[in-house]
Amino acid sequence: MRVELRDIHKSFGPVRANDGVSLTADAGTIHGILGENGAGKSTLMKVLAGILQPDRGEILLDGAPVRISSPAAAIRLGIGMLQQDPLDFPSLSVLDNFLLGSPGGLVLDRRRARDALRRLGARFAFALDPDARGEDLTVGERQQLEILRLLRLGVRVLILDEPTTAISASQRGQLFAALRAMAADGKVVFFVSHKLEEVQELCDAVTVLRRGRVAGEAAMPAETGRLVQLMFGQEPPRVTRARLPLGPPVLELADVTASDARLTLEHVSLQVRAGEVVGLAGLEGSGQRLFLHACAGLAPVTRGRVRIAGRDLTGRSYAQFLAAGGAYLPAGRLGEGLIPGLTLTEHAALAGRHGTLFVDWRAAARAAARHIGELHIRGTPRTDVQALSGGNQQRALLALLPDHVSVLLMEHPTRGLDLESAEEIWRRLLDRRARGTAIVFSSSDLDELLARSDRILVFSGGRVAGPLDAREATVERLGELIGGKGV
Amino acid sequence: MLGASPVEAYRLIVAGALGQPERVAFVLSAWAPLLLAAAGLLVTFAAGLWNIGVEGQVLLGAVFATGALRALGHLLPPPGAVLLAGLAAVLGGSLWALLAGALRAYGNVNEIFGGLGLNFIAGSLTVYLVLGPWARPGIASTSGTLPFAPSLWLPTIPVPPLEVPGEVFLGIAAMGAVSVALRGTYFGLHLAAIGRSLRAAHLRGIPTTREMLRAFAACGGLAGLAGFVLVTGAHSRHQLFPLISGGDGFLAILVVLLAGRSALACILISGAFAAISMGSLQLPLAMQLDSSMGGVIQSLLVLCAILLRGLRARLVSREG
Amino acid sequence: MWRISAWAIAAALGAVLAAPAPPAPGAGAGLVFGVVLVGPRNDHGWSEAHFIAGQYAEKKVPGARMVYVDNVNPAAKPGVTVPQIVDDMVSKGARLVLTTSDDFKDGTLEAARMHPQLPIINVSGDHAWKAGRDYKAPPNESNFMGRMEYMKMVAGCAAALTTRTGKLGYLGPLVNDETRRLADSAYLGARYCWATYLRKSPASLRFKVTWIGFWFNIPGQTLDPTKVADDFYNTGFDVVISGIDTTEALVEANKLARAGKRVWAVPYDFKGACREAPAVCLGVPYFNWGPAYVKAITLVRDGAYKQYWDWNGPDWKNINDPDTSAVGFERGPALSAAASARLDGLIRGMGAGSIVLWKGPLRLQDGSLYLRAGQVASDQQVWYMPQLLQGMEGPSK
Fold first, then answer.
1. Per-residue pLDDT tens digits of chain A, which is 487 residues long
2. What is the CATH number of domain A249-482?
């Protein structure tokens, strides 16, 4: 069966998740859908699986237009989607889960189902005990069960959305082998991922999405650099920046090892000097946040030393990081950076600490008014920060920084902002830099990283590469490092 | 309602609460501990903490006040002994609350469970003291310790035509102080921030653990003062007995929930609760109804209030 | 939004409370008397006996009308004090108030001082006993009590004559002078009948007292009397004499008897108590407060009330006469005819003065001498009973 998507549009409020996406997948192929988080991959696949209805556009199967009004309709047309953590009825047995949704009369034919489960499982080397309880299975085994169930329902188009996030390496091998076998049977497999290596290993063709649009298509194998470029955008025109004279080191990491619940960063060393900008590149969740937290005293450092503005803060608290002139602006502008439910005045009062018992509300209101004026925040001193737009929230966060900051740690300084706001945020940041603040920021926008940084650290699954000199770095090189090659 | 007119029952409660100056004085003395505990809870609620342990903190206040009066009552002039007993009660309540706070801050025990456990321990401690070391000579009864002499009772202050029990002023002052502290001080602002988002407050550089412990201590201190008032109040039993807290802490939680953190609403609602509990004594006297009907009536009011709020929330969300 | 609805609630409550007060109660023609009860008025025990006495007095004294508040204890009515209730009763027109618990002793004294013109009687107290150790009542406060000691002796005798194991349990309330002397009386009665009628050695009779901490069960604050009774029965104590206001011992005995165990109970306080489980009930020593109520009301009605302290005994001619006997013993169906006949002998002997059990030689639990040989205890010695007696098990304080 040949699957064609034509000009699919799907918006959620103001967000255009799919903005005119078209692609074609031929029978007997594994088709990769690649893109950063939020690029629109899942939305597109949910449209194909009948979970979402497109605002516009059409779907053709073997050249015939179809309307897919529900997941059940999709199954009838031979399209099935595997959820990331599939399991409808955890308390039922494997066999009963397998039976769910099968066509047939009122009487369940357990014996035949048992045969079918054994036969199908053997074909893909899935060893599932029909009598085990669903909730006792690993995520990988649940996936296998779900795949078998979908195949028994006659699915000819199988969609997998980030299927490898929670399964073991051996289960991944089994899964990939099964998918190849299905393609050899003439089925179409859509493989959604943000992991370059997996797409390169498995897929016959790939469509790269970026910000809701098709950034490009490629037959596999394709060069990593090309794919990264498609994922993250064209190489930007180099901004020629005046090299500022750098000051003394204000952030020093010597052979630091730190870990949180998910990741461990090992043996990281870095020296950032006053007036320097260091960008942190990498796919989301590759260790950038852990790195920043280790610098700020928010994550335990198990080895090595951390120095801020010349003070050894290894093992010290976040409060001491702040006292040493550090500042941290987290990705969650509301709920991490700003306190939802409090006004700009209240935030101004919190920012200005005077060691007195009573709050000087007049001074706080004046300060809030000053911030609003200076940074063009759309609001009044009495505005609840929840009512501010993302750009205004980021401006407010910048306004609330103390006058003197030695090291500013930031996550995604311009994510979600329009160009003009982003530009203005950077003007403010570079102002600070000119006054001697060192800036370390993470971003998933390679353009921003290359344009704003002096040096770039690249994170990939907890491993750190670099720092690279931003003037010499290229999108290809970054892409390879992000994809985990050459680290 | 059980064969009696509800309107009549309400009328009786009202008359029973406010019909005569003496009755108003009784209502006022029932009101004071409720006010104190509610004032304390305003502090912890501001920080988003559920200080269920308030009941035990009231008990500990009563225990500490009793201990201080027993030890100092005949050593110091009465006003001095009473003053020190008040301070001891604040200390006792604070320590007990800090225990719940420390369990939450360092032991990762939710303050609700910690508080319930500490309530139970406080109750057992009171029974032990009343039956054991502080028992009346030759007597082992849970009915209470030897009552304190009238010189150790809180005075009443004449405000014609009333004789206002002194503890009422304590309650109002506490409510006022809490109100000012929450609005006007950095402590209050920090608690508001913590209550909205613990994570963001921490990242804003607020010493969240310290401020939460302070909130617990403040609430416990005021709850302890409520316990002090239950022992020494002008119309109290002037002794320590098990169940002396009488559910005042839990009732105060209800008050603060209903009042939605407004100190003035707290004052009015707790006053109404005190009036209902005193006024409902009239039910068996005049209507042969069990006076626990007072509790039923109180619950009905609470239910109505909650329904009203739900209805409003629905209307508001529809408009939005 | 929170705030608005909070205000609405507060306003609604305010409106209710601001409603016009009903007219003050008219001073009726009759005499209103108030009764403050520590437990429920239908507890089949102490409080019910008082409630019934109030009804008896309403019948016997024309125009007398009772107002009452029951369940006055910190578990059921937190924050409510005796002076508050007395105040309420006075405003309802009460001209006499009876506070019917030892637990109300302090509150009664306070109320009496607040209302110096009001005749107020604490049942079971001694503040008004001029010859007592704790005389401090103002002139308007009186006390009365019944000489339950005799009936506890009868109860102890019935238990001793019935037990097959020779082990008697006593379910005690809190520990004070009154409860000690009642437990001691039960022991004296049991020992007398054990030795005299059954001709067994007093040393072979076990008599164990367990105190629960209050007159009735308050979960979490007292021992659970149900569990205490069970423990007795399960450790070979086949008769339990109850000293508390409620009937747990009887109820448990009945349960176990149905399961085939041969056990009995002697409840306390209330004449009708045996009706709850006749099959295991040996009888009940009870108070008949009616005559004392009538006396108090009549005194107040006639303007003849003066402070008094009464310790009313049984009418030996008929200990169960409702109009004359302050205490009685109602025999239960489980009492054997032979035992019943021997009880008759004991009662007759006590009435005639030929059997005197508060008589030396008697030693206290710690071995010290309580009564010399031949010495008969004075009222003070009995009332202020310092310990359990030698031969009894269980704490004296």
1. 889 999 999 887 666 788 889 999 999 999 999 887 667 888 899 899 998 899 989 999 988 999 998 888 898 899 999 876 565 666 677 787 777 766 555 566 777 788 888 888 888 888 888 887 776 777 778 888 888 888 888 889 999 987 876 667 777 888 899 999 989 989 999 998 877 778 888 999 999 988 788 888 888 887 777 787 787 765 554 555 556 678 888 999 998 999 887 788 888 889 999 889 999 988 877 888 999 999 999 988 888 999 998 889 888 899 999 988 999 999 888 888 899 889 999 999 988 766 788 888 999 999 999 999 888 888 888 888 887 777 788 889 999 998 889 999 999 888 777 667 778 888 889 888 888 899 999 988 787 888 888 899 998 878 888 788 888 887 777 877 887 765 4
2. 3.40.50.300
Is B189 in contact with A339 (Cβ distance < 8 A)?
A: no
Q: Do domains C31-146+290-312 and C148-286+329-383 have the same CATH topology?
A: yes
User: In terms of CA atoms, which chain B residue is nearest residue C14?
Assistant: B272
- Distance between CA atoms of B216 and B236, rounded to whole angstroms? 26
Q: Is pTM, for the whole model, over 0.80? A: no
Print the SS3 string covering C138-192: CCCEEEEEECHHHHHHHHHHHHHHHCCCCEEEEEECCECHHHHHHHHHHHHHHHH
Domain total for chain B? 1
- For chains B and C, CB pairs below 8 A equal 177
Listed in sequence order, the DSSP H helices in A4-126 are: 41-48, 71-76, 94-99, 110-124
Residues of chain B positioned with their CB less than 8 A from the CB of C21? 11, 14-15, 18-19
Interface membership of A1 toward B (CB under 8 Å): no
Domain boundaries, chain A: 3-222, 249-482
A–B interface: beta-carbon pairs under 8 A = 61
ipTM for this prediction: 0.84
Q: Is residue B171 included in any domain, yes or no?
A: yes
Burial class (CB in 10 A: 0-12, 13-18, 19+), C340: middle
CA distance A160 to A156: 13
Q: What is the domain range of residue B180? A: 6-309
Instruction: Give A272's strand partners.
Output: A251
Counting Cβ atoms within 10 Å, is residue C226 exposed (0-12), middle (13-18) or buried (19+)? Answer: middle
CATH number at C31-146+290-312: 3.40.50.2300
- As a whole number of angstroms, the longest Cα–Cα distance in chain B is 69
Does the beta-carbon distance from B193 to A342 stay under 8 Å? yes
In this structure, are residues C361 and C202 in contact, taking their beta carbons and an 8 Å threshold?
no
* Contact check, Cβ <8 Å, B243/C78: yes
d(CA A19, CA A47) in angstroms, rounded, equals 13
Tell me the C-alpha distance between C104 and B319, whole Å: 58
Q: Is residue B316 part of a domain?
A: no
Helix or strand or coil: residue B158?
A: strand
In a domain, B317, yes or no: no
- Note whether A3-222 and A249-482 share their fold: yes
Q: What is the DSSP string of C92-137?
A: TTEEEEEE--GGGHHHHHHHHHH-TTS-EEEET--TT-TTSS----
Partners of B204 on chain A (C-beta within 8 Å) are 339, 347, 350-351
Number of neighbours of residue C199 by Cβ within 10 angstroms: 7
CA separation for the pair C76, C73 (Å, rounded): 6
Q: For residues A120 and A89, is the Cβ–Cβ distance under 8 A?
A: no
CB C231 within 8 A of CB B252: no
CATH: 3.40.50.300, 3.40.50.720, 3.30.70.1070, 3.30.1050.10. Which one for A3-222? 3.40.50.300
Residue C337 burial class via C-beta count within 10 angstroms: exposed 0-12, middle 13-18, buried 19 and up: exposed
Q: Which CATH class is domain C148-286+329-383?
A: alpha beta
